[in-house]
């Protein structure tokens, strides 16, 4: 019998999922049917300190506690009860980055996030050494760059993890990581479900002359797959999470995962020949492969699903930030006129109007590079809007160009998969802020990838729901199903969402746009050089 939300929480049968995203920390409670019943959130922003993007540990814990406090307040308001016991917990966060800790458990340098692009020399050397694409944002790139820089802290590293791994460690005492997030530290061997022994050996040999008191396996988290026990909430962890003291210890944890993995779960895209696109502050596509690619590509990262299947990932540092900034100008204009502002209406009107623009945006170009974009060879960025006097400059084309820009780099990477590697997919699902205005982001992405795009009603729940589902898989998988089987049978029940097929005119127009976009990258490079 399905319990009502209040009884579910009272009886300690609710499951908590927490995700630390780029701009928001979200906490979601789900019931035994995997449906959200309460949530809380905290808004935050990264900081540029000493030339590197970071979040302080103080900001991390304040944000986590505030998101949980907001969840707790909403539960009290809606159900007049306290959260005291939970059936399971999962933690997810932005993938990759660099969080090194000393033997005392304290961080040695500020958290270096996925957004940093200072690791070019390290990533290039490791890619050559491993004969495998090693992206700038991966933990191993950050570690080796710190070594190349001669940074003093490296000799003192006792533990190296990601943001999700850090939070999990402090709540459970376990130094573990889900295989999907671990695959963004150093490549995973799909046959073992663990770090590639060959690459670990090569790295240790590469730095042998440094005589550090550690080897790579000494400092990396233990790798776990979806469904494996990853520890329990400790008394100290309970106090860290819920400063009010009501939450009791003992809840089991699923392996901590990255936002890419939870996005796959939230869109039911963990089977081979399925994929998903997350489009928010950054964007990435995840295509679950039937076999390995024929060769390494600098634009494509090889990671895994939370249960260890090989995934081709195209990660773009920039997506909707510049688009949102332009829309905010229209908000200011309305305010100047004294017109009440409903941002959902502003976004909706502008997005829908964009569909009436020319398929190639009338020649207009937008580069949404708030930060560097490795896929197109930019180590730093300058947001630019570019046009010539002969271009068709109107509102529809202006907005369409900015929408195209949000997925342009994603298209460049995926063209390799679909056109060169002949990868086949049965279904691609979109989720994230770009798809909030119904049908618009879907149609733009369908044109970019020349593929049908589905959007599920539940996809808006996001990664916090995805990690809650992984926690549910840990404690509610009484039939011993695979992760894909559990998602199909217990969560989505065959729901594939609403699908939009690519319009041939849109596809042709986007292809013309992307040709001009590639040529115009020289302008972006020049802007970066000119404004130092």
TrEMBL record:
<keyword id="KW-0808">Transferase</keyword>
<dbReference type="GO" id="GO:0005975">
    <property type="term" value="P:carbohydrate metabolic process"/>
</dbReference>
<dbReference type="InterPro" id="IPR050406">
    <property type="entry name" value="FGGY_Carb_Kinase"/>
</dbReference>
<dbReference type="GO" id="GO:0016301">
    <property type="term" value="F:kinase activity"/>
</dbReference>
<comment type="similarity">
    <text>Belongs to the FGGY kinase family.</text>
</comment>
<keyword id="KW-0418">Kinase</keyword>
<dbReference type="Pfam" id="PF00370">
    <property type="entry name" value="FGGY_N"/>
</dbReference>
<feature type="domain" description="Carbohydrate kinase FGGY C-terminal">
    <location>
        <begin position="276"/>
        <end position="473"/>
    </location>
</feature>
<dbReference type="InterPro" id="IPR018485">
    <property type="entry name" value="FGGY_C"/>
</dbReference>
<dbReference type="InterPro" id="IPR018484">
    <property type="entry name" value="FGGY_N"/>
</dbReference>
<dbReference type="InterPro" id="IPR043129">
    <property type="entry name" value="ATPase_NBD"/>
</dbReference>
<dbReference type="Pfam" id="PF02782">
    <property type="entry name" value="FGGY_C"/>
</dbReference>
<protein>
    <submittedName>
        <fullName>ATPase</fullName>
    </submittedName>
</protein>
<feature type="domain" description="Carbohydrate kinase FGGY N-terminal">
    <location>
        <begin position="15"/>
        <end position="240"/>
    </location>
</feature>
